[in-house]
Amino acid sequence: MPVKDDLRQRYADLSPALQQVAKYVLDHPNDVVTSSMRTIGQRSQSTPATLVRFAQHLGYAGWPQLKEAVAGEMGLGPDAYGQRARQLVSRAKSPTLVNEMFEAQRHNLDATERQNAGSLQKAAALIEKAGSVHAAGFRACFPVAFSFVYVCRMFRPGVHMIDGQGGSLEMQQRAMARGDALVVISFAPYSREALQVAEAAKHAGCKVVAITDSEASPLSLLADETILFAVHSPSFFPSVTAGFAVTEALVELLASRAGKGVVKRIDQAEAHLFESGAYLQAPKPRKG
Q1: 109 shares its domain with 192
Q2: Does the residue 69 lie in any domain?
Q3: How far apart are CA 54 and CA 63, in angstroms?
Q4: What is the pTM of this model?
Q5: pLDDT tens profile 168-189
């Protein structure tokens, strides 16, 4: 049983001291994973001995084992890329590898569509009301965030990329303000920068849309709306294909809700791309 569900079931039967720890663990799972036991003790106003007793009461050997369980539920378990790569190398001559990849992507897209029946509409409504929109994705999620910004800018000017280029992450975070929205993308193991940007957005009073792989991810726990995408892959690295799919669907919804003026803005943006030479013009037919 997940730690949070176990705690909710047992909460009424815990002593007041253990209830105090349980409440902190339920309210601050990110801190449990990222902070020391001493820090957790200070913040929850509990002694280290109480934290150990709490963990043992739940059936764990001690606090480190409880911390590991919470991290595992948040997708922060040990990195398995190397082991998966070894398995992949052992199948180098398998004739089904490519078929398995495409089959996995079909399953990812189907699962992602099922998971987001209402969440895409809710996220679009939230973003639509925002003054400015910021998007952040790092490492493998950078192209997903960049694609969202690039296409949205064709019909909405106030969309900005947060990428930390040139060490500018802190400066870009300062641009977020109350009434804005942040779209942040990450999957397990989660990017430190993505969580940092999400926390800065909440502090600034922004609404946060998390595009992530689990309701228990640290981004989802901070978000006002969560869009989930499946990342399964037969290769050694998680797939971001479904991440692209949900961001494209989100842009589609935003454009459809933007009113008749959106057509003129998109026409103008496309025309400028051709006029500036960014898009190649089709060659003119030669005269006979």
Answers
A1: yes
A2: yes
A3: 8
A4: 0.74
A5: 999 999 999 999 999 999 998 8
